[in-house]
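My current task is to audit a protein record that another person submitted. I need someone to confirm that the token line plausibly describes how this chain folds. Take the sequence as given and treat only the tokens as open to question. This is what I was given:
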Amino acid sequence: MKEAEHAAPTLIIGLTGGIGSGKSAAAERFIEHGVTVINADSVAREVVAPGSPALEAIAERFGLAVLQEDGSLNRAKLRTIVFSNEADRRWLEHLTHPLVGEIIHQRLHAPQHEQDPPYRILESPLLLESGQHERVDRILLIDVPKPLQIERVITRDANSSVQINKIIESQMHRDEKLAQADDIVDNSGSLESLFAAVDNLHTTYCEMADVHSN
């Protein structure tokens, strides 16, 4: 097989959106088109897997209460702690972000098969806040108004509006995200509308990637 058939993708798209925006649904639609999507949250779970140095450090700082009975991280418990204390949140980010970043870089730039779409996606709720946007060529924002965010998350996760508000407020303000995005999908409507927007973007990104490679 020719070496060119193993080349890394020529275009990296950063996919982001606040909690309840529909970012994950958009990512799933891209995957249906054969696009490789690297999920930053999934990578973050890998770096705190049972037995990892990162999880040991977390347990040492916050106590065994942040661990499940099987030794895995109780993410809900840890989330409640760090979103209530700025210093704790920053400590956790300082620990995990470099580890996550290294894995993400390797997967974004790994060789791909010739038949794969010529771009990859980094899906991350904190793409802009964490500096991960520096790893991508273009930013795609899935956007919804804050009241709709809260409504969707309450329905999905049965969280309190107070907890959801804390999560939203810890993230970059919506207006700032809109200002930094290259592409914006308004996901206030139906799932079918979201999928149609993703389908159109897939065609656009394939064309952009082909231009980059020439």
Remarks:
- Strands lie at 11-16, 36-39, 119-123, 138-143, 183-186.
